[in-house]
Write a structure and sequence with these properties.
heterodimer, A: alpha/beta, six-stranded mixed beta sheet, four-stranded antiparallel beta sheet, 10 strands, 33% helix, 25% strand, B: 294 residues, alpha+beta, Alpha-Beta Plaits, elongated
Chain lengths: 246, 294
């Protein structure tokens, strides 16, 4: 823990091992709407971070900035040591492959099987075919869906669909998994299965950033909690609960 | 590179098959719009040919003296025909002029008054057709200088009036064609855009897992090209089928006009294929762009 704190103090993002760095980031939209104000956030490699806060607090904006769907109005955003504002356009897909992203609504392609959905992520990034099968089989086994590999998403439970999405996020061996409300559509028991899976992935060395409303999960796990309100970070607490505990 | 091509073509094929309804709708729209465009192209070509036909009817007529020696007349015909402005020179004999006048009277429903004439008062004449009716001036000058020419009428105001009418009609033809082309452009682009938007989810997934722009774009461009070419083939097939029943009517109509049917058919085929292919590719290219890295 001390080591982690020490590392966080290092100033230069390109030399320390933080996977994600936001420095003094402000994001405004035309019309004067400001989604993020002066956000400083540093996530070292191997961390597990909950991003909490009410709807509209800026969680989704942070995710959009990290996958470089949008650019910060002010400040710097680093992913895997790259300054996203200075990243050439053709390099953007490469950075996205360093990030595995998981959504509340899974975003699976309905006409592709579990295996094909995961393989799709490799096919569309030009991976040679002979390398696709072993990589897909490995992550499908990791999320525990080997038996369902040939099934279509519509025949799976919500939890299984989300595990498929997690397998797809993992197949590029990302440095960080960003999960946007991954348990939002799932009942509590299944939610716990998904959380357990994310924890196991985290233990394998993958950094996890999870945006969630699930107070029970956040409070029970006592991981690092970053709380956003109206575009500002109002709390960044290691071992925190969902709500502030004074 | 080969891997990329194989991937793009395979994805394009999958996209076309799995979104069958969209493929059919886009191809049908493409075919109908190309038919519309080619129809207007044919009409405009017919109009242009018709106008040219009318312009060629504007002739310089030189009346010949009654005592002109046939040898001199033949020599004059040859000299005039050799002028660069002149397309053709016709000779109307005195008898033929009388015959024409009688036909004219009959067509007007008037009595044939010429039967009361003892002698044929009409003159033989040369009818000079010009490449461009605007060039009548020097030809008339030349004819007036010839000793066997009695008179050559100034056709300045006639030429001006005919040309004004034909120019206006020609411009209207081009404007209508351009308007139709723009309508076709918008409808086809929108249809392809719909086909792309229907698969926004898939594009979104590709983007999020780190597909490069080329991997996202090219399968759609191939699909667009395919839809364009298939639509063009259908449109040309329909035109070929329609050409036969319309043929006899068209033949009578176009035979009058200085229109080459072979050239027209070739132009329409090139127009339809190039437009179909071009709009398919362009439509996909532009529609997918919305989803690429900003």
């Amino acid at each position: 823990m001390r080591e982690r704190l020490l590392r966080r103090r290092l100033d230069d993002p390109s030399t320390n091992s933080a996977v994600v760095v936001l420095r003094d980031v402000t994001k405004g939209y035309p019309g004067g709407n400001v989604a993020l104000r002066d956000v400083d956030l540093e996530i070292p490699e191997g961390d597990f971070v909950f991003l909490v806060g009410p709807s509209g607090a800026g969680k989704s904006t942070i995710i959009k900035l990290l996958i470089r769907d949008e650019l910060a109005t002010r400040g710097e955003v680093y992913v895997d040591g790259h300054d996203l504002a200075r990243l050439p356009r053709r390099m953007v897909p490469r950075i996205r492959r360093r990030i595995g992203i998981v959504f509340q609504d899974y975003k699976l392609l309905p006409r592709k099987s579990v295996f094909e959905n995961v393989a799709f992520a490799l096919e569309v990034t030009g991976t040679p075919r002979r390398r696709i099968r072993p990589a897909v089989e490995r992550v499908i086994a990791l999320v525990g869906l080997s038996a369902q590999a040939g099934q279509l998403p519509s025949t799976l439970s919500g939890g299984e669909q989300q595990r498929t999405a997690i397998a797809r996020a993992l197949v590029h061996d990302p440095r960080v998994i960003i999960a946007d409300e991954p348990t939002g559509n799932l009942d509590p028991l299944i939610s716990w299965e998904i959380i357990q899976l994310l924890l196991r992935i985290n233990e394998l060395g993958v950094t996890v950033l999870m945006a969630t409303h699930d107070a029970e999960v956040v409070t029970a796990l006592r991981k690092r909690v970053v709380a956003l309100e109206e575009g500002r970070i109002v709390r960044d607490e290691t071992g925190g609960a969902y709500h502030r505990q004074d | 590179m080969i891997g990329f091509l194989v991937f793009s073509l395979r994805r394009a094929g999958q996209g076309l098959l799995r979104n069958g309804l969209m493929t059919v709708a886009a191809t049908a729209t493409m075919a109908l719009m190309l038919l519309l465009l080619s129809g207007f192209w044919v009409i405009r070509s017919g109009l242009a040919a018709g106008l040219e036909f009318v312009e060629q009817k504007v002739e310089v007529v030189a009346d010949l003296r009654d005592d002109a020696d046939p040898v001199d007349v033949t020599a004059l015909r040859e000299r005039i025909a050799a002028l660069p402005e002149v397309a053709a020179v016709g000779y109307v004999s005195k008898d033929e002029a009388l015959l024409r006048f009688r036909e004219y009277l009959a067509a007007q429903g008037e009595d044939d008054l010429t039967q009361y004439l003892g002698d044929n008062p009409l003159r033989a004449s040369l009818e000079v057709t010009l490449h461009d009716p605007r060039d009548f001036g020097p030809v008339i000058e030349r004819l007036r200088g010839e000793p066997i020419v009695e008179s050559a009428k100034d056709i300045g105001s006639l030429v001006e009036r005919v040309l004004t009418v034909t120019e206006v009609l020609r411009t209207v033809g081009v404007v209508v064609l351009v308007v139709v082309a723009i309508i076709v452009l918008f409808i086809v682009m929108n249809t392809i855009r719909l086909a792309v938007v229907a698969r926004a989810e898939e594009i979104d997934v590709m983007r999020l897992v780190g597909a490069s722009d080329a991997f996202i774009r090219w399968p759609f461009v191939f699909e667009g090209a395919f839809i364009g070419l298939l639509g063009a083939a259908l449109a040309l097939g329909a035109l070929a089928l329609a050409a036969d029943p319309l043929g006899s009517f068209m033949f009578d109509f176009f035979r009058l006009l200085p229109l080459q049917l072979g050239t027209l058919a070739r132009d329409v085929a090139i127009l339809v294929l190039a437009t179909g292919f071009g709009l398919g590719v362009l439509g996909s290219w532009i529609s997918v762009r919305t989803y690429l890295i900003k």
